[in-house]
Design a protein that fits this description.
14 strands; alpha/beta
Length: 288
């Protein structure tokens, strides 16, 4: 599609008030789903993050790595198991999770950012005591070595930002109850990190348009959900499976004071820029 130079300039001018709104503020983006598997989408996400950083918006990238973890588990003959939307993590699985998240996936993202002129530093929850956790227990399910975050040391991330780098955070945590390492759901970690930083926005990139009344029909997207509506939507089965922890994270983020919290479609090229720097709303927004 041809875009004239005039149209390009117009687009930039239209983005100006949004850039002014966010400059100097912090945006937390949770990156996962199909956007991590498709090379074109991966390039678009990384370009969005670098652009935001270069115009003065502090951007923190918190990532999962489900597809890569599944691939490695298959390779070594370990079955992937999920309980209530969360990955069940036993002794063998936690080793793979740590290796993939803090190693391969994290460093690949850092390298991609730097390859297009950005500056990034890879972190995991073990670095500088960034994320501490205890075993996740809800009285109903056993998740294995999945942790519940007890503390986020935001100073580690703030220090990286102050030096002009984009923090790229993988979500394993240091145990404070006798376990050395816990696997942390990336959506949950992003929400806690956003709250600890006092972020302006939390954006969860996923592989659906957002919360839909009928998961098979994208035209049933719910563009806005008030916190008072969440329980009813869960009881109706509208919010179920892997969407449950995402919605819970958004709810917690809003209650902690994050102004703008969204689940958006990571399958759309440059969805982060569309959400932040244009009038066009995509995905589902959560509000009080």
């Amino acid at each position: 599609m041809f875009i004239s130079n005039f149209d390009k300039a117009t687009i930039l001018i239209e983005a100006l008030p949004y850039i002014q709104k966010y400059v100097g503020k912090t945006i937390v983006v949770k990156y996962g789903g199909n956007a991590m598997k498709n090379e074109g989408l991966k390039d678009a996400v990384i370009s969005d993050i670098v652009l935001l950083s270069l115009v003065g918006i502090n951007t923190v990238l918190v990532h999962g790595g489900g597809p890569e973890i599944n691939k490695m588990l298959d390779k070594v003959g370990i079955e992937s198991k999920f309980v209530n939307g969360l990955r069940y993590t036993d002794e063998d699985t936690i080793d793979i999770v740590q290796m993939v998240l803090a190693g391969k996936t994290n460093k690949e993202l850092v390298n991609r950012i730097q390859a297009i002129g950005g500056k990034a530093i890879g972190l995991c929850g073990l670095d500088g005591g960034l994320i501490k956790a205890k075993k996740l227990e809800d009285g109903q399910y056993d998740y294995g070595k999945v942790g519940e975050i007890t503390e986020v040391n935001a100073d580690v991330i703030k220090d990286v930002i102050s030096r002009g780098y984009i923090p790229v955070v993988s979500t394993i945590a240091a145990g404070e109850d006798g376990e050395p390492v816990y696997n942390i759901n990336a959506d949950t970690a992003a929400s806690k990190i956003a709250a600890a930083l006092g972020a302006e926005n939390l954006i969860l990139l996923t592989d659906t348009r957002g919360v839909m009344r009928d998961v098979k029909d994208e035209d049933t997207l719910i563009p806005e959900i008030r916190l008072s509506e969440i329980e009813e939507l869960m009881s109706e089965g509208v919010i179920s499976g892997g969407m449950i922890p995402k919605v819970k994270c958004c709810e917690e983020a809003v209650r902690s004071g994050i102004k703008n919290t969204f689940i958006i479609d990571g399958r759309i090229l440059h969805s982060i820029l569309i959400e932040l720097l244009t009038d066009e709303g995509i995905g589902t927004m959560f509000k009080l």
